[in-house]
Write a structure and sequence with these properties.
Length: 249
């Protein structure tokens, strides 16, 4: 694994996969600015920690500017922030549907637009969005989440095509089940976390959930020079779950 030696902005890195990603990047030599609305561990390894509300377009843009000033530019941006709302078309709150698109799609577009000029000045770089394994399959009971994350995956491919000319790679990490609080709303559909754990062997061919450390290593790879020929990809890491449910595209 090559050293990264890059200037990276991570949004949504105070816990779970985001925290593991920041730690993996820093351990590999990257200079990282992390932004989140929640308090981060003191030993995270980020050069600076900023506060952000991904529902605030102006704050997203200012965080990108601040990160660029702190690091002297940007080579990569990873947005790991988002929201998980579940429900069917009839049971969901329409506000939850709107919020899912605002935070899972629009916020990524605002962040990418703010970062593009810096990535161009750096001679190219990488944008990484956290989508979901749900982006490539369908499942009952999670309409707001699945539809918004699928839209994010389509946007990833569109941006990858449009900005390849600038040597800017755009990819989407599509995690399956990971044991983090982010998945709590989904667990409730199974009767809570403990009930869900009993279901894992029949849902996931590898019979377990992923660990945050595994995803940190994958993020490190995607943002490294080792992945410099990869763009427009849905990097599905789900223990084989999508093999059972089948792809949507």
């Amino acid at each position: 694994m090559s050293q990264i030696g890059q200037r990276v902005l991570v949004v949504g890195g105070s816990s779970g996969m985001g925290e593991a990603g920041v730690r993996a990047l820093a351990a590999c030599g990257a200079r990282v600015v992390m932004a989140d609305r929640k308090k981060a561990p003191d030993d995270l390894g980020a050069e600076r920690i900023l506060e952000i509300d991904i529902g605030d377009d102006a704050r997203i843009s200012s965080v990108v500017s601040e990160a660029g000033e702190i690091l002297g530019g940007l080579d990569a941006v990873w947005n790991n922030a988002g929201v998980c709302h579940v429900g069917t078309l009839e049971s969901m709150e329409l506000d939850a549907f709107d919020l899912s698109f605002a935070l899972n799609v629009r916020a990524n577009a605002v962040l990418a637009r703010a970062a593009l000029p810096m990535l161009r000045r750096a001679g190219g770089g990488s944008l990484l969005f956290t989508a979901s394994a749900a982006s490539v399959m369908v499942a009952t009971g999670s309409l707001p989440y699945i539809v918004s994350k699928s839209a994010l995956l389509t946007m990833t491919r569109q941006l990858a095509l449009e900005y390849a000319r600038d040597n800017i790679r755009v990819n989407a990490l599509c995690p399956g089940w990971v044991d983090t609080p982010f998945n709590a709303p989904a667990w409730e559909m199974f009767g809570g976390r403990e009930s869900f754990l009993q279901k894992v062997p029949e849902l996931v061919p590898l019979h377990r959930m992923g660990t945050v450390e595994e995803f940190g290593a994958i993020v490190r790879f995607i943002l490294s020079a080792d992945a410099r020929f990869m763009t427009g990809q849905a990097v599905v890491v789900d223990g084989g779950e999508s093999l059972i449910k089948g792809p949507t595209r």
